[in-house]
């Protein structure tokens, strides 16, 4: 299953808004910016994976894992938010389940998971 287009943050202005106005939370693997958008019907995610983390194949795999983790957690995530996820170096050695666990941890810190 793939992530629908309307679930993605693509525009630079949307990224910048999340960086400026949103709240950020981090652990060793991820930085997550969350920006509340009350008019939104479902969450959107934007991904940032630096070239320092590896070649294109590695970066795309990381992005696929993050998207998949979000799809699996879809019901637990609050809908009226934009999330910007920035991957850090340790992610390169992680599998899907570890990435999901780490993302869940950061989202719990940011208090955006439904109780």
Automatic annotation (TrEMBL):
Pfam families assigned to the protein according to its UniProt record, in alphabetical order: Ribonuclease_P
Top EC class of this enzyme: hydrolase
PANTHER family per the UniProt record, alphabetical: RIBONUCLEASE P PROTEIN COMPONENT
A single GO molecular function term of this UniProt record: ribonuclease P activity
Catalytic activity: Endonucleolytic cleavage of RNA, removing 5'-extranucleotides from tRNA precursor
EC number annotated for this UniProt entry: 3.1.26.5
Sorted UniProt keywords: Endonuclease, Hydrolase, Nuclease, RNA-binding, tRNA processing
Cited function: RNaseP catalyzes the removal of the 5'-leader sequence from pre-tRNA to produce the mature 5'-terminus. It can also cleave other RNA substrates such as 4.5S RNA. The protein component plays an auxiliary but essential role in vivo by binding to the 5'-leader sequence and broadening the substrate specificity of the ribozyme.
Protein family according to the UniProt entry: Belongs to the RnpA family.
Entry-linked InterPro entries: Ribosomal_Su5_D2-typ_SF, Ribsml_uS5_D2-typ_fold_subgr, RNase_P, RNase_P_CS
Name of this chain's protein: Ribonuclease P protein component
Assembly notes: Consists of a catalytic RNA component (M1 or rnpB) and a protein subunit.
